[in-house]
Design brief:
Pfam families: Plant_tran. The protein is an alpha/beta fold and 439 residues long. The protein contains 16 helices and nine strands. It is globular.
Length: 439
């Protein structure tokens, strides 16, 4: 009995100690968890995010920019300006003045403290530098004195303004006067009735949304791209631009969605009349590569020509079709932003950048074509000019009835006329080549 009592006493004593120890341990754990939760509460407390303000001295930035390029005796001459801005100074100032007169954003204003804001020259220079060099937005900060977010805003406003102000003239379709000049130039090159060359170019979209990459994935490039279709003449003027089709499409799919022949189908295109090898034609044509269909509006080369006449025709066609290939090279050389991958997320912004680059390109062509296009140095100019200002002739005809639309569509896609036109051109170019050799 005594041993049993001792056992019971020891068990009760040790059990009480264990319970005390467990209670003590539980208290320690509770205190530790309480302290940890208090620290977490302190860490989760909102920290005010303040924006770092940098005194860029934008007034000095404007003065520096003005003295370098726009003063009466600038630091850098006209050649350096042309190389860095991709255009002559009078063309750039014309753009700046036009945007300043239309958009308050490009007007220099004064804030509530009496401090001057960014000047139109600074904003337009920042936008041009991004377009011409394809650099990051903060790459112009150290010289133009504009922050990164403001530079991106300047670029977006600049391209929107250029499109709104200048697209009616510099991204127009050929009017009757333009068509006659194009036909006159084409006749001197052996291709009577030619209105230009057509082809497509891909622009890589680096930040294409992942859900869209399958649709925009280019088969031969292996990256997401957006397609640009253009029609260019020998002086590098772009007469038609269609941008936005996903890169998984080929040139034929792009053509099906393009508006390049809408005016012909709706009987709104200028009249075209020319004669080749004794046959009369009333529809102009474009030089194209082998993927395009055999339509009456396309003239393609011969893949394996047999005979001297066909070999000569293939040589002429492939040589003059390089106008549009050269156009792509010049466009990308002038505006490096479309040569490298596109970093914007929104497709609309990419379309605005592309359209603005094409408009600026045509403005440069108008200003400089006399220096490289010999035919235009003889007094030929596009468009109608009155008092020094361009007067585009816009079509005023109503849309054609549906049965006429179908009839014109059948004429446009007439394969027999395509083959007849090619045969006439083969004979005509053979005669043209022999005459040129005798001169």
């Amino acid at each position: 009995m005594a041993r049993n009592f001792d056992d019971m006493f020891n068990e009760a004593l040790y059990g009480k100690r264990r319970r005390q120890d467990n209670t003590l341990i539980d208290n320690w754990i509770d205190e530790y968890l309480l302290e940890d939760s208090e620290e977490e509460d302190i860490d989760r407390s909102p920290i005010p995010i303040t924006r770092r303000w940098i005194n860029r001295d934008r007034e000095a930035g404007h003065d520096h920019l003005f003295q370098d390029y726009f003063a009466d005796e600038p630091v850098y001459n006209a050649d350096i300006f042309r190389r860095r801005f991709q255009m002559r100074r009078d063309v750039f100032l014309r753009i700046v003045d036009a945007l300043s007169n239309v958009y308050p954003y490009f007007q220099q204003r004064v804030d509530a403290t009496g401090r001057r804001g960014l000047s139109p020259l600074q904003k337009c220079t920042a936008a041009i530098r991004m377009l011409a060099y394809g650099v990051a937005a903060d790459a112009v900060d150290d010289y133009v004195r504009i922050g990164e977010s403001t530079t991106i805003e300047c670029l977006e406003k600049f391209v929107e303004g250029v499109i709104s102000v200048f697209q009616d003239k510099y991204l127009r379709k050929p009017n009757p006067n333009d068509v006659q000049h194009l036909l006159q130039i084409a006749e001197g090159r052996g291709f009577s009735g030619m209105l230009g060359s057509i082809d497509c170019m891909h622009w890589q979209w680096k930040n294409c949304p992942k859900a869209w990459k399958g649709m925009y994935m280019s088969g031969y490039r292996g990256v997401a791209t957006i397609v640009l279709e253009v029609v260019a003449s020998s002086d590098l003027w772009i007469w038609h631009a269609f941008f936005g089709v996903s890169g998984s499409n080929n040139d034929i799919n792009v053509l099906d969605r393009s508006q390049v022949f809408d005016d012909i189908l709706n009987d709104r295109a200028p009249e075209v009349n020319y004669t080749i090898n004794g046959n009369n034609y009333t529809m102009g044509y474009y030089l194209a590569d082998g993927i395009y269909p055999e339509w009456a509006t396309f003239v393609k080369s011969i893949s394996k020509p047999q005979g001297e006449k066909r070999k000569l025709f293939a040589q002429y066609q492939e040589g003059q079709r390089k106008d549009v290939e050269r156009e792509f090279g010049v466009l990308q050389a002038r505006f490096a932003i479309i040569r490298g991958p596109a970093h914007f997320w929104e497709k609309k912004k990419l379309a605005n950048i592309m359209r603005a680059c094409i408009i600026l390109h045509n403005m440069i062509v108008e200003d400089e074509r006399d220096s490289y296009a010999g035919n235009f140095a003889q007094g030929l100019e596009y468009d109608d000019v009155e008092n020094g200002l361009s007067q585009p002739q816009l079509g005023e005809k109503d849309f054609a009835p549906y049965h006429q639309f179908l009839q014109r569509n059948a004429q446009l896609q007439n394969r027999q006329q395509h083959r007849q036109l090619k045969e006439d051109l083969i004979k005509h170019i053979w005669q043209f080549h022999n005459v040129c050799r005798q001169l």
